[in-house]
Amino acid sequence: MTVALTIAFVPGVSPAKWARVWRDRFPSVELRLRPVGQGDLVAALSAEDDVVDMVFARMPVPEDLRAIPLWTETAVVATPKDSDLAKATEVTAAHLETVHMIDAGPVPADVDAALDLVEANVGVVVLPQSLFRKASRKDLVARPLADAEGTRVALVWRDEDSSELTEEFIGVVRGRTANSSRSQPDQPGGSERSADEPSRPARGAARNASAGSSRSGEAPGGKAKAKSPGGGKSGAGKKSNTGKGPTPGRGKMRGKPSRGSKGNR
User: Is this prediction's pTM over 0.90?
Assistant: First the structure.
């Protein structure tokens, strides 16, 4: 039975560098990558089939999800190459008062449609720089928007999906080395966690622990447990209804037919 971790990502965000580290460090645990739309975040995490464990998404996200903010994307203004705005090194709020704005949000609901309108000289649009680059519009240029907060990218997951594997992936994303335990500080260059992120214990027990420990010693199941980034203890099992102590972890291993099979309750 295959032990796997499924990571989804929204347009403009690439998990490639972390995928390489994961596959080198945990070759016995398959890493599956899946693109999703920002609006499909909740549905992807709660799906019973083709389950997603974690998602790289743009904030804000629903409050009932756990999130580690990672980096802030630069906000740019997309404008035709021959426009007056294209002559500026950066665009200010005063500039935007003189043009028609397409879509008021920090991320357009339909990026391609918004850029089509910009190419037709209908107006300009503000969007994350990564999305503009991904669109690759030769007739448009992007200029940084001065004093804009930008959009924040975060690693997002459900509290009940916390597991040994998700803890290990958090470590990879935050720059933890292969020889360090999860209780040790992240290495310089790792992503910072926001100071206002809530500290909540993980309710889910370590998933895939037994399957991971029976495989190569590189699988994360055999590693020492430590505090999770949210402040909870990774691998903490729930008490059974009989009051006789903790039940087995509620892990889900790919290869099982659906999320309903995880829990072993």
Answer: no
